[in-house]
Amino acid sequence: MKLLLHACCAPCLIYPLRVLREKDISIMGFFYRHNIHPYTECKKREDTLQSYAEEKELHVIYQEDYDPETFLRNVVFRESKRCTYCYHDRLKSTALLAKRGKFDSFSTTLLYSKFQNHDLIKSVGESIGKSVGIPFYYQDFREGWKEGINTSKALGMYRQQYCGCIYSEKERYLKKTV
Predict the structure, then answer these.
(1) Closest C-alpha among 140, 149, 78, 84 to residue 107
(2) Which of 5, 57, 61, 129 is most open to solvent, judged by the fewest CB atoms within 10 Å of its CB?
(3) Which contacts (CB < 8 Å, 24+ apart) does range 36-41 have?
């Protein structure tokens, strides 16, 4: 099987990449960047992913533009539903790219995080898969959470402390001061 895997960052890629390769799934990565704020954070994540992907001989497609304004326009006044929009936008971009590239399916490293809404990701992914005409590959990678953390630390990877959007960045810092 040929799979296009949305990779939000290198630390979240470690475990899914190993597990999928053990299943003899041919993987290509895709880095989506519109939701990541600020730009310096986006670059840190991208640079870390590039370094790790080279080490693991993984080809990754990197989104060339950077458009956080569109992301913000689509979530403003709907902040409590921002993750739904974000999952949809990232997965739809991945699915469309997978279809153009003649992949057999698409998936996401978001399924590795114990902080993400797996039921919602699965539902959104399957819905997009049906509408685009390419299957969403679901696997719960959370069992490898500790392995991914330990490996990323051992490799000295940059490890972000929030999901990526300006709202999650605010929540990260606000929790520490309140």
Answers:
(1) 140
(2) 57
(3) 36/68, 36/164, 36/165, 37/68, 37/164, 37/165, 37/166, 37/169, 38/166, 39/66, 39/68, 41/160, 41/164, 41/169
Question: How does pLDDT run across 67-86, given as a tens digit for each residue?
Answer: 999 999 999 999 999 999 99
For residue 61, give the H/E element and its range. Answer: strand 60-62
Q: Where are the domains of the chain?
A: 2-177
Hey, what's the torsion of the CAs at 28, 9, 155, 39, to 10 degrees? Answer: 130
Using DSSP, state whether 81 is helix, strand or coil: helix
CA 46 to each of CA 61, 108, 112, 128: distance values in angstroms, whole numbers, following the listed order: 11, 16, 18, 25
Find, among 5, 111, 17, 6, the residue nearest to 57 by Cα: 17
Mean pLDDT rounded to a whole number for the chain: 96
Helices (H), the chain: 10-22, 39-55, 68-75, 82-100, 118-132, 145-154, 166-177
> What are the structure tokens assigned to 27, written together?
């993987």
Q: For domain 2-177, give the fold.
A: Rossmann fold (3.40.50)
Helix, strand, or coil (residue 25): coil
pLDDT digits (tens, 9 = 90+) for 131-147: 999 999 999 999 999 99
